[in-house]
Amino acid sequence: MITLQTPRLNLRPFTADDAADLLEYLSSPIPSCFAGDKVTSIEAAVAKIAKRQKDEGDYLAVCLNETGKVIGEIFYVKEEPDTYSVGWNFNAQFHGKGYASESAQAFIDYLFDKDDARRVYAYVEVDNVASQKLCERLGMRKEGHFVEFISFIKNADGTPKYEDTLQYAILKKEWQAKRDAAS
């Protein structure tokens, strides 16, 4: 079980008590890639947390240290033997305050330092400029542009709306060199 602490944040597994906070940002997800995670009731949020805890991959709640409020999440998938796909989703009320950067930095540090990751990558839709900038702040390089890569929502006529997706990545040696240069 992963638990990480930063100066302003606590990253930890979700609990049923987080349902109201999860509902806040999953009731109207901004990037369409989270459309499938949409919940519209506290009961649905509790069920979403239970499913995540059981079988839907690995998610960490990102909480404010001062209040314990869940303001977003970091999620990840390990691909054997040493590569991780990562992502994040934050409550719009907390955008622009550096919380995504702070939590992603701490989590990627953990993957490289404690979980022996060699490579970390993220998929970001072309219209999600904030996440693209976050990847760049983290030192990730843009490795690919996938045209009409995936569909999360439908057009007005019911056909799939395919989205262009970018892939960003960083290797452990690049991450370490970036940290060394910053110190």
Automatic annotation (TrEMBL):
Q: Organism, per UniProt?
A: Psychrobacter aestuarii
Identify the residues that the record assigns to the N-acetyltransferase domain, covering every copy: 9-157
Q: Which domain of life is it from?
A: Bacteria
Name of the featured protein: GNAT family N-acetyltransferase
In terms of InterPro entries, this protein maps to: Acyl_CoA_acyltransferase, GNAT_dom, N-acetyltransferase
